[in-house]
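Before a colleague's protein record goes any further, I have to sign it off. Thanks in advance; the entry in question is below:
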Amino acid sequence: MENMLEFGRQILAAQGFSRLLKAELVSWSEDLTELRVPLSEDTKQHLGMTHGGVICYAADNALTYAGGAVLGAGVVTGELKINYIRPAIGSALIARASALHAGRTQAVVRCDVFVVDGETEKLCATALGTIRKVEGAGDGSPPAHRS
């Protein structure tokens, strides 16, 4: 659904950190979410590999989009667990996520993160998360700041 993808891209564009990382929402549907993050010198840690926080960012956002696809707009990550499998050395990360189960207010979602090296994709991390609806944020707008 093209309107859903465009809406998702607007949400991503409203996230300052996503803009900083130049993240791109490639696809978004109830079946599959795909998020791409280009890699550069700025995303590496001191050993020359992609920083784990960048990999976790990709997983977290893809998990949340996949949860939002089945729960509706206005969702946040309730928790996530990530396993780093191999160093991410390449030109981009591709995070692919889909919901394993969805109820009325939360979804359990899985995400595999691949590093792109030339024409090859290699699995570098896998994550599992719980995505929750935020009460009163059904239109996709951010919830009011609470102090």
In short: The mean pLDDT is 92. The longest strand covers residues 120-133. Residues 6 and 25 are 9 Å apart (CA to CA).
